[in-house]
Amino acid sequence: MQHSDPDDLFDRAEMPVAPFEFNADVARVFPDMVRRSVPGYADLVALCGLVARRVARPGTRCYDLGCSLGAVSLAMLARTPPGVEIVAVDNAQAMVDGLARRLAEVPGGERVRVCCADVREVEIVDASVVALNLTLQFLPPEARAGLLAHIRAGMVPGGVLVLAEKVRFDDAAEAAFVTALHEDLKRANGYSELAIAGKRAALERVLVPERAEVHEQRLRKVGFVRVTRLYQHLNFVAWAAWT
What PANTHER family does this protein's entry cite (predicted)? Predict the structure, then answer.
């Protein structure tokens, strides 16, 4: 796990809470934030690296779309041969700058091309592996199919998209139970009640989760031929979608 300042961003009683954004303050604490608030985050990152090891081949590219500080990019770098280029994309300059500093210290880091851009506007070419790790959920729902179709069009035969998302449940009792467990996990990881409430308010209408079945149907509709659910921890799910 990368070095990080402690995540204390929401331990302040500032009301109303501003909408969440991936700014310099978030970049400063991001590794600690995802470790403590996303169930199984380290497993999701490792999973992307393992998929890349098995699927990526020289002459193709791996894409980390919504790369933040590049944990997935670094996992791919460690697991792929020299002939594979890795393209890391994020629209937050603070995240891109942080990743660039990190890559300067990593052997072979020059194999990662870092781009500050909207993931919807990046050209996808000869992609054998694409990671969308907790990224799609921050796009407007009406824009999600278009991005997935764009990714699919740029992938080579036999390629794999790894999609990880927070999901929601239709059944009210099920949703309440899983949400309560997620908040219990945050408490166990040291978050205060104020921080939990503040983060929830900041993410409202910024992070819009969908049902797992909606994601699976959309992936098939845009042309992925096989969709495999690889991982679930509470309300976080990861799939492999095959070209």
Answer: CARBOXY-S-ADENOSYL-L-METHIONINE SYNTHASE, TRANS-ACONITATE 2-METHYLTRANSFERASE-RELATED
Which residues are known binding-site members for S-adenosyl-L-methionine? 41, 66-68, 90-91, 118-119, 133, 200
Predicted local distance difference test score (pLDDT) of residue 2 = 55
- Decide: 128 and 201 in contact? Cβ < 8 Å: no
Complete edge-to-edge strand list for the sheet that includes strand 85-90? 112-116, 85-90, 61-65, 127-133, 155-166, 236-242, 226-233
Binding site feature residues: 41, 66-68, 90-91, 118-119, 133, 200
Domain segments of the chain: what residues?
41-168+206-242
In DSSP notation, 8-33 reads: -TT-S--SSPPPP---HHHHHHHHHH
pTM above 0.90, yes or no: yes
Backbone dihedral region of 110: left (phi > 0), alpha (psi from -120 to 50 degrees) or beta? alpha
- Superfamily grouping for domain 41-168+206-242: Vaccinia Virus protein VP39 (3.40.50.150)
pLDDT band at 6 (very low <50, low <70, confident <90, very high): confident
